[in-house]
Write a structure and sequence with these properties.
Elements lengths: L1 H30 L3 H25 L1 E2 L2 E2 L3 H21 L5 H23 L5 H7 L4 H28 L10 H20 L10 H19 L7 H23 L2 H24 L4 H6 L21 H9 L3 E6 L1 H6 L2 H13 L3 E6 L9 H8 L7 E3 H4 L8 E5 L8 H4 L19 E5 L19 E5 L2 H14 L1
Parallel strand pairs: 3-4, 3-6, 4-5, 6-7, 7-8
Antiparallel strand pairs: 1-2
Helix pairs in contact: 1-2, 1-10, 4-6, 4-9, 6-8, 6-9, 7-8, 9-10, 12-18, 14-18
Length: 478
């Protein structure tokens, strides 16, 4: 009786810990919605996960037996923690999207491995009572497929973002992807309708399903490029969350289930919002035809007009309203701190300075927000593009720093453009436009930007960091 009482107490403590961890996940996610509370939100969620892991190691039991191989588990946690810490500390801000893709892929791989390990151990009693068509088997198969697709797709996304994997755009690729997806669904149904007494003889089918899911994950991401990549990262993130939730169902683990559902639902909502921001359909993302060809790029350009540092400094210093549009080039140059120094100098001269943040600026959702928060730019200065656009006709100078596709008028003017219909920062509505670029290179979508040839636009060529530093010096000398 004492042993039974102790077992019940341990289970109660474990379940209570899972509930507390789930609550911490929810509060942590809520706090991530604002830069001022995001750090505390991360800490809260981390505390919840740590509590869930420790409680599982101490109190989780199966058939009255505690968890074994504790030494191996702790060693794996320590090694993983050290590796993750080192990678996160060393990663550059420009490589943050690659880091997100890599870590997300590891989560998908873990979920897939759980399913591969659990399938051979499905209870024969459960199969005898309900057959293969039961929720437990379905959770295993879904976790395997979704987790594998997330892992394979994230690794390809990592390579594409890092520049060593190119796009593979073939007209009939969407039909191939749809065919593979249909085969996966049919194969899952095939496995679940087998008349067997155990899963032992079906184990080879799991490896076949894994292989097909890898192929789909690769081909799903390969055609995607240009300004569409942030949406793919968000979608793959939601896949990993759903796959983790399947593991929560398998183990009746409330913390794992809650965490997976939160990641999956938040990632899905963010994906939908990103699709709306780019005027794309979610179906196109799923079948792998997101993005377009760069062949529709404008063939007619115009005259490029340059501006000197001194003239730019005068124009900015004697303006009433200035809007800065940051892009990936700002991150590459690591110029966010000098950019903030410039906006502080201008504000000291009575200039109102705002930052126009496009939802897909950079290479991942919120990339520019994180970049500018690192430089201690006040959150109040960051304004979403759809909110700042109506005020641009009253803006004296709009400064584009390293952005390209998100200010490209082709999204409004050229129906043949791959970014046509994507909401943009309407830079050409401002009274004056200064574009800081290294040269006349095209953006991530590989199409010409007609803003550079607009009569209001002046180009300020050079590395963003050194150009901004020189501009700061010019403003100080006025």
């Amino acid at each position: 009786m004492d042993q039974l009482t102790g077992y019940s107490a341990g289970i109660s403590i474990l379940e209570i810990t899972y509930i507390i961890a789930s609550v911490l996940f929810i509060f942590g996610l809520k706090m991530l919605s604002h830069p001022l509370t995001a750090r505390r939100g991360n800490i809260l969620a981390a505390i919840g996960m740590t509590a869930a892991i420790v409680a599982t190691i101490i109190w989780h039991e199966k058939d009255g037996k505690p968890i074994g191989n504790i030494g191996w588990i702790i060693a794996a946690i320590v090694i993983g923690t050290i590796i993750g810490w080192i990678i996160a500390k060393k990663v550059r801000m420009t490589a943050m999207p690659q880091l997100v893709s890599f870590f997300n892929g590891m989560g998908g791989a873990a979920a897939a491995l759980i399913s591969m390990m659990e399938f051979p151990h499905v209870s024969p009693e459960l199969i005898a009572a309900q057959g293969m068509s039961n929720g437990h088997v379905l959770a295993i198969l879904l976790g395997l497929v979704i987790g594998t697709v997330s892992w394979a797709g994230s690794m390809i996304a990592y390579g594409k973002l890092d520049g060593w994997i190119g796009d593979l755009r073939i007209k009939w690729m969407k039909y191939v992807n749809l065919s593979i997806l249909a085969f996966i669904v049919a194969f899952v149904v095939f496995i679940m309708t087998r008349d067997v007494t155990s899963t032992t003889g079906l184990t080879p089918f799991i490896y076949i399903l894994f292989g097909v899911a890898v192929v789909y994950g690769v081909l799903f991401v390969m055609p995607i490029g240009g300004a569409d990549m942030p949406v793919v990262i968000s979608l793959l993130n939601s896949f990993t969350g759903v796959a983790a939730a399947m593991g929560g169902f398998l183990y009746n683990n409330q913390a794992m289930l809650t965490g997976g559902i939160l990641v999956g639902s938040a990632g899905t909502i963010l994906t939908i919002l990103m699709c709306r921001a780019m005027n794309r359909s979610l179906l196109n993302v799923i079948v792998g035809v997101f993005g377009g060809s760069s062949s529709a790029a404008a063939s007619e350009t115009g005259t490029v007009r340059e501006i000197t540092l001194s003239d730019a400094a005068v124009l900015l210093s004697y303006s009433r309203k200035v809007v800065i549009v940051p892009g990936y080039g700002l991150a590459v140059a690591q110029a966010q701190h000098i950019c903030h120094e410039l906006d502080k100098l201008l504000e000291e001269k009575g200039v109102e300075v705002k930052y126009a943040i496009h939802p897909v600026a950079g290479r991942m959702p919120g990339h520019m927000n994180v970049l500018l928060a690192e430089a201690d730019v006040p959150y109040e200065q960051l304004v979403e593009s759809d909110e700042i656009n109506p005020d641009l006709p009253n803006t004296d100078v709009l400064v584009v720093i390293g952005a390209n596709d998100v200010v490209n008028p082709a999204a409004e003017d050229d129906p043949s453009s791959p970014i046509y219909g994507m909401p943009i920062v309407k830079a050409r509505d401002a009274k004056n436009v200064i574009v800081m670029k290294r040269g006349m290179g095209k953006g991530y979508a590989a199409i010409e930007n007609m803003l550079f040839f607009n009569e209001k636009t002046r180009m300020l060529f050079g590395d963003a960091k050194s150009t901004l530093q020189n501009l700061v010096n010019e403003v100080k000398n006025l």
